[in-house]
Amino acid sequence: MPASRRGSSSVTLPTGQTLALHTRTSEAEDLPHATKKKMADHLRKYEALFTLTPQRMRMIVEAFKESLELGLSKPGQVVPMIPTYVFGWPTGKEQGNYLAIDLGGTNLRVCLVTLQGEGKFEITQSKYRLTEEQKQEDGQQLFDFCAECLKAFIDSNIEGGDIEKGAILPLGFTFSYPCNQNRIDHGELIRWTKGFGAPNTEGHDVVTMFRKSLDKFKVSAEIVALTCDTTGTLIASHYVNPKTKIACIFGTGCNAAYMEHVGDIPKMAQLGIDADAEMAINCEWGAFDSFEHENLPRTKYDQIIDETSNKPGEQAFEKLISGRYLGEILRLIICELIDEGMLFLGQNTYKLEIPYSFDTAFLSLMESDPTDELLMIIGIFTHFFAVETTLAERQFFRALAKLVGRRAARLSACGIAAIVSKMGYLEEGCAVGADGSLYNKYPGFAERIHEGLQDVFGEKGRNIITYHAEDGSGIGAAIIAAMTKDRKLANRYPNL
Ligand code: BGC
Hints:
Blueprint: E1 9-12, E2 18-21, H1 36-50, H2 54-73, E3 82-87, E4 95-103, E5 107-117, E6 120-129, H3 132-136, H4 139-159, E7 169-175, E8 179-180, E9 188-189, H5 206-216, E10 221-227, H6 229-240, E11 244-250, E12 254-261, E13 278-282, H7 300-308, H8 316-321, H9 323-339, H10 360-368, H11 375-385, H12 391-423, E14 430-435, H13 437-441, H14 445-457, E15 464-468, H15 472-489
Parallel strand pairs: 4-7, 7-10, 11-14, 14-15
Antiparallel strand pairs: 1-2, 3-13, 4-5, 5-6, 8-9, 11-12, 12-13
Helix pairs in contact: 1-12, 2-12, 4-5, 6-15, 9-10, 9-12, 10-12, 12-14
The structure holds beta-D-glucopyranose (BGC).
């Protein structure tokens, strides 16, 4: 074993363990640190790798548009463009009590939503954190957990008087993973995303699975609609802001939904639905450029993330953009510089070497650090990774975070631009309801999307405005459940 690629020495103990030896003082400035010149050279290299020119963006938009069209024309395409069986926009008059359950990338959320009409509502909710183990355990077990949480939630609301004892409430099920649907209360999971891997679920109808769990735990709820966070966001945002035409999620995963004319969905032609009817499309755009990797500018860090993920080749667009991966991209760059002997010489960097240890929230903090000394960045590196940094290194890390965050936002702008251009929304303009931790918490993410839209469309890009959307997985799922009940009562495509 080499003495240490970190510049420290190490000894092998009789037990076989390796003990790293580091000589360090408490004064960061006394440690060997990267020179400013070296950092400037590296920064230029990363700038070249992570910067997207307007011309490159326009090329991506064109390819993106083609993928969207292809997904609408034939089943089983890379970007699946899933017809959701959500017919048109809500009227705003939807009323009643609905349950919503949202199996997200990070949390399980259960909600009781009272729709009051006129775009108004009330919501009561509980959140349960999902463990990494739960994401990998058998699918039916995962749905059992959802059913148990829902039961506990209903029971506590019966006690509190908000749910009538014995009532069987309609349930909107938000399941934000790509599913092929052939009616609104059905969805075969195409593939897990966002690090989930629960066996015995892909290729199965998740509604049937969840119904089985609801029966097992005798939960008084009837699944009326299966939806995903993005479709829910589209509908909930339009409920409160009718100018909304597109919805996006930029969170642990990323995706978009919009309203399409049924006549422009060739793969649905055989269903005989009125060509003038409208239907929400769940694009599942995180899959853009998967497998072939022909259009997106992937760096070697992106390739490592992909190859070491549980789903190599898949979700190519999402892996460059979403919150699950941005921290990891930065961590891989830092590790490369440690390996090259440029950073943290003489310090023990094992904590930084743990995959996914660098949370995307750290990037947000690094970019928003208001202090001259970049104290927040000192805190992140000392507290979470036990390494000391100089001011120049902290400035360098912040610049790197900016590059990674900016690329994500500009690529997001390309996706939005592809839908805008396909649907011809540029001239009249449109509002884009957006949600997710990245959009809501990452400083400047929305501004960078807007800047990107102007780089693609010129001045007219200003006509497309993103805004913080209404809660799609809770309110949106409830409105969709209400719309579905009303549609079926009116005998409009009752079997879909
Ligand atoms: C999923 C989508 C979801 C998005 C945002 C993606 O990984 O495939 O269904 O809408 O994440 O949560």
